[in-house]
Automatic annotation (TrEMBL):
Transmembrane portions of the chain: none
Source lineage: Bacteria, Bacillati, Bacillota, Bacilli, Lactobacillales
Name under which the protein is recorded: N-acetylmuramoyl-L-alanine amidase family protein
Keywords tagged on the record: Repeat
InterPro entries named among the record's database cross-references: Cell_wall/Cho-bd_repeat
Domain of life: Bacteria
Cell wall-binding repeats (start-end): 1-20, 42-61
Organism for this UniProt entry: Streptococcus pneumoniae
Any Pfam family the entry gives: Choline_bind_3
Length: 80
């Protein structure tokens, strides 16, 4: 199988080679973050390289918006 897979109530993305994607993944204009250590899709608030991000329940990265009073820029980074 390839593409998005739900395993144990967590989402993963398997590339066409069958390899599990990790890190940042773009599908169309939408970005997702797949845990660098185990590949599970992040939702809610998470931190990468010192920056905070927010992903909706769908996994889509929130960009150019405010979530819970916190502004997220065009890269999805929380602007303090």
């Amino acid at each position: 199988k390839t593409g998005w897979q739900n395993l144990g109530n967590k989402w993963y993305y398997l590339r066409s080679s069958g390899a599990m994607a990790t890190g940042w993944y773009q599908e169309g204009s939408t970005w997702y973050y797949l845990n660098a250590s185990n590949g599970d899709m992040k939702t809610g608030w998470f931190q990468v390289n010192g920056n905070w991000y927010y992903a909706y329940d769908s996994g889509a990265l929130a960009v150019n918006t405010t979530v819970g009073g916190y502004y997220l820029n065009y890269n999805g980074e929380w602007v303090k």
